[in-house]
Amino acid sequence: MDLSPRRLGLKTRTADAHHALDTMIGGFDTAENYARYLDGMARFRLPVEAWLATQPLPAGFEDWHPGLYAEELLADLDDLGLAVPADLPPFVLPEGSGVIGLHYVLEGSALGARLLAKRAQALGFTDVRGARHLFAQARNFSNWRAFSDRMENVCVYDETAAAAWADTAFDYARNAFESSMNAHRLYRRPVELRP
């Protein structure tokens, strides 16, 4: 598949950070592993989405809306009987006007959500119980395409700043998943769907 120039540039510049996150997340083949994944995703997306809600969209994106999944994540946590993570570190922003890089990471997660939704479904988690956020992302793949088109066509684009913001998002996510893994090591308990 041929990637557009800006998408290829960001993919290349952020490959190491993206790979480090994917390696940390790994796969989930048990309900307990899925609970760890869900907790890590909440620790990542909830603070980032809260910050995004206070920010204007970048120039050239005014007719587009990012995919936000906090509501679905909160419902999924509740389904598994998991507490909403507290005392989350703030999302610290890099210098420059590279918010497009942050959106690149968030919208690009729809690509992986398709695979992760299938894995979650194999464990009994669905679009109405426990994996709403994954199925919502997977169904919203058209938003990724719309974002990619706009990214290629905006007049003002700073690839260095966008890559820095994308790397920051990948690093923040990796720290969130690492924090989740540490928390789950301390408080192991079986996870079951509530009736």
Write out key terms for the chains shown.
195 residues; mainly alpha; Heme Oxygenase, Chain A; 8 helices; 64% helix; 0% strand
Structure notes:
- The chain has 195 residues and is mainly α.
- It has one domain: Heme Oxygenase, Chain A.
- The protein is 64% helix and 0% strand.
- The chain contains 8 helices and no strands.
- The chain has helices at 5-13, 15-25, 31-52, 70-79, 99-122, 132-139, 141-153, 159-186.
- Helix 2 (15-25) runs parallel beside helix 8, helix 5 runs antiparallel to helix 7 and helix 5 (99-122) packs parallel to helix 8.
- It starts with a helix and ends in a 9-residue tail after the last helix.
**How many helix segments?**
8
Structural class: mainly alpha
What is the CATH topology descriptor?
Heme Oxygenase, Chain A
Range of helix content: 55-70%
Total strand segments: 0
Order of helices and strands: HHHHHHHH
Bin the strand percentage: under 5%
CATH class category label: Mainly Alpha
Radius of gyration: 17 Å
Could you name the CATH homologous superfamily? Answer: Heme oxygenase-like
Low-confidence segments? 186-191
How far the N terminus sits from the C terminus, by CA atoms, comes to 44 Å
Quick gist of this model?
With 195 residues, the chain is mostly helical. The protein is 64% helix and 0% strand. It is built from eight helices and no strands.
Question: Could you outline the blueprint of secondary structure elements for this entry?
Answer:
Blueprint (H helix, E strand, L loop, with lengths): L4 H9 L1 H11 L5 H22 L17 H10 L19 H24 L9 H8 L1 H13 L5 H28 L9
Helix pairs in contact: 1-8, 2-8, 3-4, 3-8, 5-6, 5-7, 5-8
